[in-house]
Amino acid sequence: MSNVTPNTTATPSVVAPSKAGTGSTDKSVVPTSRTGSEVATGHGTTTVVDSVVARVAGIAAREAHGVYDLGGGAARAIGAIRNAINATDQGQGVSVEVGEKQVAVDVTIVAEYPVALQDVANGVRADVIRAIETIVGLEVTEVNVTINDVHLPSDEQDEPAEARVQ
């Protein structure tokens, strides 16, 4: 039994060396029964678990302009409890499907008001693709962005408004 975060769908893949040409390790992906992405070299293997791909995507999505938070209502409620005990989940609101050579990502976000929602979604998409392809090394086939809520600056005000009359 493998440990996979609840919001991560695991599809196994392995990256194995190719000895074409100069003998350098050109990465090609081969199916395996293990969860994650595994890079095999002449000196051993490196396994990247699907939950790590989700964390990379989550970190990238949080950094996009106009993103207030990740996840739906229940995920954010659990995230608030985690934050209270200093245990953040960078993969919150992110689901990944890792195939043989490719990754598909679903991201649920809360956008900041009044940023244009399509611009936020496009920014999230671009940042997630760049991060996964650069850090993980797999091709991203799609990034589906669901905007679950819009955060208003007035939602943060815990202080009562000043009385207009005394």
Keywords:
166 residues; 4-stranded mixed β-sheet; alpha/beta; 3 helices
Structure report:
- The protein has 166 residues and is an alpha/beta fold.
- Helix content is 28%, strand content 33%.
- It has three helices and eight strands; from the N terminus they run E-E-E-E-H-E-H-E-E-H-E.
- The chain has helices spanning 50-63, 73-84, 117-136, and strands at residues 13-18, 26-30, 37-41, 44-48, 67-70, 94-98, 102-112, 139-151.
- The strands form two sheets. A four-stranded mixed β-sheet has the order 2-1-3-4. Strands 5, 6, 7 and 8 form a four-stranded mixed β-sheet that branches.
- Helix 1 (50-63) packs across helix 3 (117-136).
- The longest helix is centred in the last third of the chain and has 20 residues, at 117-136.
- It is elongated and about 80 Å long.
- The relative contact order is 0.17.
Please summarize what this structure is.
With 166 residues, this protein is an alpha/beta fold. It contains three helices and eight strands; from the N terminus they run E-E-E-E-H-E-H-E-E-H-E.
